[in-house]
């Protein structure tokens, strides 16, 4: 390889692409599919003790059956705030109180809602693709700078091929994750 100013950090590019993939997976996990999953509540933040707190830090989130999530709130004074946070989260779930336990029955999804969720999943995937392409563009810019700093044309081609292969691999992973999620959403 070349000297230090012409070295391209492909590990950093891969780490950034992996970050886009991780973000996509957590966004897809928060989409409800008609089946209960504790991950659906991950984006819900509760106003507790003067600060926004993740719901899993104020209570225990369980999935006792396929269409039910329960939140066992540890501090009785927070039950109302947790219920309010769930109601206002946009998940479309109507919480039911039972002492310090909040029960969240997951309604069956209708066809129209399934299609909407499929579109939302596609938007998440497109955002991930854009992020991956931006990382690719940064990598290609680094290669151009390295070429002007003395990187040979052969090395430039090798780096460009490596960055493109990395991009293709992550774009394919995004497409596969989207396909899996859309199949899960459309499953009755």
From TrEMBL:
It comes from the Bacteria. One of its GO terms (biological process) is cytoplasmic translational termination. It is found in: Cytoplasm. Its main location: cytoplasm. The keyword Oxidoreductase does not apply. GO terms for cellular component: cytosol. Keywords: Cytoplasm, Protein biosynthesis. Residues 24-186 form the Ribosome recycling factor domain. One of its GO terms (molecular function) is ribosomal large subunit binding. Belongs to the RRF family. Responsible for the release of ribosomes from messenger RNA at the termination of protein biosynthesis. May increase the efficiency of translation by recycling ribosomes from one round of translation to another. This is Ribosome-recycling factor. The gene is frr.
């Amino acid at each position: 390889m070349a000297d230090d100013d012409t070295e391209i950090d492909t590990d950093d590019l891969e780490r950034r692409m992996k970050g886009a993939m991780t973000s996509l997976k957590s966004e897809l996990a928060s989409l409800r599919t008609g089946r209960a999953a504790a991950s659906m509540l991950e984006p819900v933040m509760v106003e507790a003790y003067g600060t926004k707190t993740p719901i899993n830090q104020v209570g225990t989130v369980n999935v006792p059956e396929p269409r039910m999530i329960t939140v066992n709130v540890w501090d009785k004074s927070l039950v109302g705030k947790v219920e309010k946070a769930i109601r206002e989260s946009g998940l479309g779930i109507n919480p039911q109180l039972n002492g310090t336990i909040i029960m969240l029955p997951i309604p069956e999804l209708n066809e129209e809602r399934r299609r909407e969720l499929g579109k939302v999943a596609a938007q998440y995937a497109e955002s991930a693709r854009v992020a991956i392409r931006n990382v690719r563009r940064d990598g290609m810019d680094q290669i151009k700078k390295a070429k002007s700093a003395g990187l040979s044309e052969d090395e430039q081609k090798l780096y460009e091929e490596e960055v493109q292969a990395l991009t293709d691999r992550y774009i394919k992973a995004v497409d596969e994750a989207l396909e899996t999620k859309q199949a899960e959403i459309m499953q009755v």
